[in-house]
């Protein structure tokens, strides 16, 4: 049970880790100091983690990384919108 709680907390922190950056991009309408390579790299990583979660049938991994991937796709959309 303890390991599952740690996993859920880690998933929450990772899943919503880029939300502050997205909010900043929207507020400032600027991506001056944002690295698109970082977004793409982490986006691909979360996508692969979600696939791995599917193989393991681990809902925490699947849900957390699917949401993180969608968040990063949103960040990439805003990056190109404001660039």
UniProtKB/TrEMBL annotation:
Highest rank taxon of the organism: Archaea
Any Gene Ontology CC annotation: membrane
Pfam entry (one): MtN3_slv
Keywords on record: Membrane, Transmembrane, Transmembrane helix
Spans traversing the lipid bilayer: 6-23, 35-55, 61-82
Name of protein: MtN3 and saliva related transmembrane protein
Organism: Candidatus Methanoperedens nitratireducens
């Amino acid at each position: 049970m303890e390991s599952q709680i740690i996993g859920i907390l880690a998933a929450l922190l990772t899943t919503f880790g880029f939300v502050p950056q997205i909010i900043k991009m929207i507020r400032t309408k600027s991506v001056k100091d944002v690295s698109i390579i970082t977004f793409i790299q982490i986006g691909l990583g979360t996508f692969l983690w979600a696939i791995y979660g599917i193989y393991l049938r681990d809902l925490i991994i699947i849900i957390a990384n699917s949401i993180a991937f969608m968040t990063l796709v949103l960040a990439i959309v805003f990056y190109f919108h404001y660039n």
